[in-house]
Every structure is written in C-alpha cells, then in structure tokens.
Amino acid sequence: MRRLLLSLAVATTFAATGAYADVKLPNIISDHMVLQSGQPVAIWGTADAGEKVTVKLAGQTLRATAGTDGKWKVMLKPLTASATAAEMNIKGKNSLTVSDILIGEVWLASGQSNMEKPFRNQPGQKDVFGAETELSLANNPQIRLFKIKKTRSNTPAPDVEGKWIVTTPQSLDESRFSATAFVFGKNLHTTLKTPVGLIDSTWGGTRIEPWTAPEGFAAVSSLKRYTGNAPGTKVDNTVASELYNAMIAPIVPYGVKGAIWYQGESNITVPDFPGAFGDYSDKMAALIGGWRSVFGQDLAFYYVQIAPHTYHIVRQNQVVSPEILPRMWEAQTDALRIPNTGMVVTTDLVDDLADIHPREKIIVGLRLAGLALAKTYKQSGLVINGPKFRAMTVENGKAVLSFDDIGGGLMAKDAKPLTWFNIRGADGVWFPATATIEGNTVVVSSPSVTTPVAVRFAWDEAARPNLMNKEGLPALPFRSQRD
C-alpha cells in the first residue's frame, strides 16, 4: 500500500508539472505530408521543458530547445520540389520518424458549404457534375489531402484532428474532400509537374467572422467591435474567431503558398442582423490580412463570388429583396482592392436557381487554378478574368460602356441578344434595356430613357447573363453609379 501511494504521488506530481515527456508533433506534420518548396518551412511540436530536439530532413540538421511551455520549433531552409518520398527524423528523449514526405505546393481551402461540397453523397445536396468520371481518374499519388475535422474553440486550440492521405478514387470519395479544392490542386499538379498538398478546412453554413483571426479584426478600423471581447462573446450574433481558433490556428505556421476561399451565403442570410454583408469587403480584408499576419507571409488569396440563387423566394424569412445578392457581389468585387487576390465569377455556372449548392464545381476549381497559375506561378498567355466594368459615357442618348479584361473580345455566350441590362435617367426609374456589342464596348439604350444617367448589369439574384469574353469568362455584375 505504501508503495502504491508513493507511485500515485509521483504520478500526480508529474501531471501537475504539465510535462510533455515524449517529443510530439502536431497532426499536420505526419506521414504522407507535402512540405512547401522554395521557402523556409517550420517544423514544430512539444516536449519536456528544456528538452533538446534534433530534426533531420533532406540533408539539413536543425536543433531546438523546448521552452518553459514545452513548445519547440525549427525552420528548415527552402526545399527543392521533389516527388521522391523523403523521411524526417526527430529526436529528443524519444525518436520519431515521418515517412513518405513530398516537397511541392501546399494550398489551404476554406469557407462554407460550396467549398466543403465533395463530389458525391453530401446529405441534402446533389452530386457534382462529372463526379463519377473525376473520381474514377483520381489515381494521383503526388496529390496529398488533409481534411480538418469540424470543431469550435474560444481560444487557440493546440491541434486539429486530421491526417494526410494519398489520393486514390477510394480515398478521395471516402474522405469527402472538397471537390473544388481537389480540381484546383489537380490542375496545379498537372500543369506544374510538382507534388501538391491540399488542406480542407471548411464548414457549411458558417459566416466569415468566425474564420477571421483576431489580428485581422484589429487591423481594420471599421471592425474594432469584434476585438477585445471575452472569449465566446457574440457580436452581431456570431462568435468571432471561433473557427479560426479551432481549425486554422493549430496548423500555423505550416508552410503554405496560398489560400482559396468560397463563402458569403451565410453573411447574406442573417435574419436578426439585416445587412450583415454591408461591410463584407472590410471583413475580407480582415480575413486575408489576419491569415497573412499569423502565417508570416503574403499568402496568395483567390476566392469565388457566390452564385445566383433565389434567396428572397427560397429564404424569404431571411432575404427580403432580389437586390441583396448583387450588393454582396459588389462587396466581393470591392475586395479585389486587396493586393495579391483574385476572384472567380459563377453567374454562368448555375443550373437550378433554387439550389444554393450549384453542381458545377469542376469549372470553379479550374478557374481558381487559372488565377493561381497566372498570378502566383507567372504562367503566361492565360486569360483569367471576365469583363469588368470600367466607365460609362453617353452618346446620342445611349450609354456606352467600356470594360477591362475583355480578353480576345466581347461576345454573347449563346449568340443571342445581351441580357440583364437596365438603364435609368435622372428620375431614378429603371427600365429594361437593349444592349449590343460594338467593338470593345457595349451600347445600352431604352426608348423610355432619353438621357441615360446609370446602367445596371445582372443586378438581380436570379441573373444569369450571357455577356462574356471570347475565352468564356463571364462579365462581373455591376452598377455604374452607386446609390
């Protein structure tokens, strides 16, 4: 009995010290991972306070000493991309081996259900177009996937739950990995001929504020109401940073090249906080700036403009006007002011306006990849944007619109008259308009408006217009004059 009590006392004392004993790694640093090439890469973990840790990989040997909190970190010098499996050895009081490591490009995918949507079998949703073919061809051992389990936290969590998997048709299907993110990564892999690691940190029905780091809110003056609150406090009926704390912070500072983002629907449909999307472009600045701050680099950030959907019919208790979605589109377009960003437009990719989860995710993934290939990887000759309104002039009672990003020229998708244009005069009354392509401009008119003052394009939640460039990228919704 005396020996038992002594053993219990020792165990209790050991536990009270908070000692980590064995060297441990976070789940993101594990077998089958992809490490980012071409930039310093962090390897970190926990051990006993004061324990010396040695890390060996690719001819590099680095040493660290665990701090009083038991945490340690080393920074690997930039690694060269390689599809040859490597091994990393970590030694403290115990030894660990991480196997089958590839060096390539790593991207983080996040947002709500349209980014989360897998190819098949998502409850309450239809399968992605082309799902069976895409899955059957998914023998991609150089594409590695890490899906983070959904959870919330009021403070930064120590780790995420997840593991790296090698892509096969079965693993891609069973993991329920983001279809959009996979197509994005597959296109990078095919084009760049390098391994690709994808991290899926998504949750359907979530707003942008919970994904945003506190550092991001603190840097945007219009959003200071989200800072300095007690953990778990709701502001605008949401808990800021709780998903960042649980599903992003624990993988910092893992080396990534950039992020892709598809979210916004839940910032429209907030019945007890009308207009929650009103400062959405500022919230995008906070999200992007916060992530760049914590990862310590100017992450590339490419996002998807949310799709047409009959919100005010399907969700009439949440959205009261068909113009609310265009205002969100406008806010998302405004976020392009943030450097090193790009946006995919989806007005041409919706088959069912009543379905908030459009099934055409393969093209979305390809368009996101086009942004990355052109802007991040400097691939030449790519047209990555659809026509974007630049200016309006008035000639002979008609509005003449000029555009940026016309690519090879303007065209109607279906070779029919242009759709979804409206025009108004000084009286403020909007009328449907006739619009024609003349060279690199669009000329808009109505017999009811003799002196045009403003034009709107696709200014309705149901708008699926046909104006695009000859490369097949749709024009961005816009209004030439804001209220």
Task: Describe it.
Strand 3 and strand 4 form a beta hairpin. Strands 1, 3, 4, 6, 7, 8, 9, 10, 13, 14 and 15 form an eleven-stranded mixed β-sheet that branches. The chain has a four-stranded antiparallel β-sheet with strand order 16-17-22-21, with no helix packed on it. It is of the alpha+beta class and 483 residues long. Helix 5 crosses helix 12. The longest helix is centred in the middle third of the chain and has 16 residues, at 280-295. Residues 1-18 have low confidence and may be disordered. The chain has helices at 2-16, 113-116, 131-136, 169-175, 179-192, 214-218, 242-247, 265-268, 280-295, 311-314, 324-334, 361-376; strands spanning 34-36, 41-46, 52-57, 60-65, 71-76, 82-91, 95-111, 140-147, 164-167, 196-202, 234-235, 238-239, 258-262, 300-304, 341-344, 388-395, 398-404, 410-412, 421-424, 430-432, 434-438, 441-445, 454-457, 467-469, 478-479. Among the domains are: 104-150 and 179-376, Rossmann fold (3-Layer(aba) Sandwich); 388-479.
